[in-house]
């Protein structure tokens, strides 16, 4: 459908490239399409009920390639909007969703409406979502408002979908939520001799550890010396492989 219908209608170049951050990625991986299956012998439990297990063989007869394209964009309306957290699709992209792509098997918009305070619901989204989805992300329970573009009732009242999120009461600017995993990077020193790049990765979860893949984008004019790389975790130096 290109830019004529579906979610791609929102991808207006001048809005995306003037955002605080944008990243495009292409992910390709092999997926087993056909493999051997064999049955194990039945087993008997305490109540003498027979059970049969199907086990997948390690050998794969046919492999398909999965292509996944992602676009990540960060809009900072809190700084540019005089401390207001309200946003809408039109405010971000200067466009709204008018129709779904007929070739899409699914087309959905998820809005994180997880309340920060368990006792008071501070967020409201409009129009009403087609459904609500709950999931556990990084050990925290999240609630998402789901807008299914394939649902016939979504475009019945209006030919344009402009998802909006509003706060029921003003929020204190000092109470910005901190993600469980977040990072900071800064440059110190000067020149090739004393200049350095420091990247700090924080995990605020009380007990759980998470695997992290760090990808550094370095300008072409900056020369890095890999032998000077040091990794420090909880005050102790880890030798990189």
Automatic annotation (TrEMBL):
GO-annotated cellular components: GPI-anchor transamidase complex
Pfam families: Gpi16
GO terms (BP aspect): attachment of GPI anchor to protein
InterPro entries: PIG-T
UniProt-recorded name of the protein: PIGT transamidase
Gene source species: Melanocharis versteri (Fan-tailed berrypecker)
Lineage: Eukaryota, Metazoa, Chordata, Craniata, Vertebrata
């Amino acid at each position: 459908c290109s830019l004529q219908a579906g979610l791609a209608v929102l991808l207006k170049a001048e809005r995306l490239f003037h955002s605080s951050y944008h990243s495009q990625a292409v992910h390709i991986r092999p997926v087993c399409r056909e493999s051997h299956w064999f049955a194990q012998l039945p087993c008997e439990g305490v109540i003498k009920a027979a059970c049969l297990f199907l086990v997948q063989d390690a050998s794969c007869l046919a492999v398909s390639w999965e292509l996944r394209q992602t676009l990540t964009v960060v809009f900072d309306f809190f700084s540019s909007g005089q401390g207001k957290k309200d946003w809408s699709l039109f405010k971000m992209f200067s466009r709204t969703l008018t129709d779904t792509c007929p070739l899409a098997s699914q087309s959905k918009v998820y809005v994180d409406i997880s309340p920060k305070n368990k006792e008071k619901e501070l967020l409201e989204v409009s129009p009403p979502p087609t459904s609500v989805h709950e999931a556990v992300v990084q050990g925290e329970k999240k609630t998402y408002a789901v807008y299914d573009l394939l649902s016939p009732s979504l475009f019945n009242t209006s030919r344009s979908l402009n998802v909006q999120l509003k706060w029921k009461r003003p929020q204190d600017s000092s109470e910005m939520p901190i993600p469980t995993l977040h990072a900071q990077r800064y440059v110190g020193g000067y020149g090739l001799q004393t200049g350095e790049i420091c990247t700090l990765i924080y995990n605020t979860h009380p007990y759980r550890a998470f695997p992290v893949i760090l990808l550094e984008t370095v300008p072409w004019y900056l020369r890095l010396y890999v032998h000077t790389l040091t990794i420090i975790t909880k005050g102790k130096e880890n030798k990189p492989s």
